[in-house]
Design a protein that fits this description.
Oligomer: single chain
Strand content: 25-35%
Order of helices and strands: HEEHEEEEEE
Shape: globular
CATH architecture of the largest domain: Alpha-Beta Horseshoe
Structural class: mainly beta
CATH class of the largest domain: Alpha Beta
CATH superfamily of the largest domain: Ribonuclease Inhibitor
CATH topology of the largest domain: Leucine-rich repeat, LRR (right-handed beta-alpha superhelix)
């Protein structure tokens, strides 16, 4: 595939269905530009939530639920201005 073919593929208009916490969302448009998800749930992660996650300013969904995370929720998560769903449930956060 040529580089121009790659660019054409990624500029294609698409529709994607996404479900989280019984919330059904439909994304339309250039999917790679409008939807960013990080799901690390159910991975037995330990320790504190890294404050560097607050640097992911374009993230829309962050799921860290059902791990063994401890400590406070980092203040830097307030930088996630595009967040639509943040799930920190079922951890040992303070």
């Amino acid at each position: 595939m040529k580089d121009t073919d790659d660019n054409q593929f990624y500029s294609q208009q698409d529709e994607a269905q996404f479900t989280t916490k019984r919330l059904h969302l439909t994304y339309k448009g250039v999917i790679l530009d409008i939807m960013s998800v990080l799901d690390l749930s159910c991975n037995k992660l330990t320790g504190e939530i890294p404050e560097e996650l607050g640097l992911l300013t374009q993230i829309r969904v962050l799921n860290l639920s059902h791990n063994v995370l401890t400590g406070p929720i980092p203040v830097k998560l307030s930088n996630l201005t595009n967040i639509e769903s943040l799930d920190l449930s079922s951890n040992h956060l303070t």
